[in-house]
Amino acid sequence: MLSQIRESELQAIRSFHSSQLIRNKYENILENLDSGIILFDSDGVLAFVNVQMAKLLGVSRKSLTGCTLTQLVRHPQLSRFKKRKVLRIFRETVFHRKRFHELVDEYGRSWLITMTYGDQMEGDFLISVKDVSDFKRIEQSAYQNDKLAMLGKISASIAHEIRNPLTSIRGFIQLLRPHLVSLGKDEYARIILTEIDRANDIIYEFLNSSKPSAPETKIVSVSSLLKEVVLLTESEALMKGCQINLHTDETPPAYISVDVKQIKQVILNIIKNALDAINEHHDENITGMIDISARDNGKHIKICISDNGGGMDQNTLNHLFNPFFTTKESGTGLGLSVSYSIIRNHGGSIAVDSQVGAGTEFVITFPKLEVSEV
Ligand SMILES: Nc1ncnc2c1ncn2[C@@H]1O[C@H](COP(=O)(O)OP(=O)(O)OP(=O)(O)O)[C@@H](O)[C@H]1O
Ligand SMILES: [Mg+2]
After folding, report:
1. In the prediction, which pLDDT does 311 show?
2. Domain ranges of the chain
3. For ligand 1, mutation pick of 326, 362, 364 (most atoms within 8 Å of CB)
4. How far apart are CA 127 and CA 56, in angstroms?
């Protein structure tokens, strides 16, 4: 009898220990999860906070134990920026009962805030915060690719519509040419024909670049490529009273494998935009400057093009690479969207940093070639 009681006691102790072990395991997992987790009980007192959430708040976990929401917002270690964000999260999730809420932090990262409450939580409120920046980036790039595909279709139909009448005009001018010659106006026929050919060339170039075609790559030195592009823009810059500074003292010289024509077009687009931005932001006391440089960080080659023009506001930055987005009266809004697809086709990336009134910097990143490939 006694031994039976002993056995059942031992059984109870064993099951208590094993449930304690499981509990510790779960707590350990929750504590070290890469998402931030915070739990408030039905009285609004903080019951649990994991390592990641304390890190995100920038507050020590110890000092958070037993805090109420008001105490959390007034916490001396919480920065003003974070206080505002915490209040916003609570307004959206607790008061407006939104189960999901998204926010962008001071470093531009996107976070998804999820709120769980209800019967299964026995009056508690669980808030979890997850970094979704990578998902956002993928989503944005899929959206961008869709738009570029649409752009390809639109440009093909535009080209079809414009090219046909141009071909007819060209044919009729050739028929009229003998009459113009007899009137001593052969020069007119020549000019019309040259201009039609030029228009055809422009359409051809436009179509070629707006359709994301596979690049015909060649290994080139970054500095010679940049020198050639600068040569092409120097006269326009001079006319606009703007200075272009090229910094290409790379030792050893850097090489990239690119479609030279396409990459020249990208750099030209960016320099032309910089010249426009400087022109629009005309200030007699400041010389317009465009600085172009190439950097080798071991794995990548970065080409930086910065200007001291008017810069861009957040709305412009959000739509910068969208086809047909322009703030210029005579702009098509295709320059940067085409540049974006060219750089992506080269396995590179393009980033921008800009401040209203201060200027803009574009950074194009290319994969670096191994010495054996050069
Ligand atoms: N360096 C810059 N400084 C300020 N704004 C810029 C700069 N580069 C681009 N932008 C902004 O981005 C917009 C889109 O540029 P994008 O080159 O795609 O088209 P666009 O220059 O307007 O027209 P186009 O098709 O003739 O190039 C511009 O209208 C301008 O508002
Ligand atoms: Mg442009």
Report:
1. 95
2. 21-131, 136-210, 218-373
3. 326
4. 13
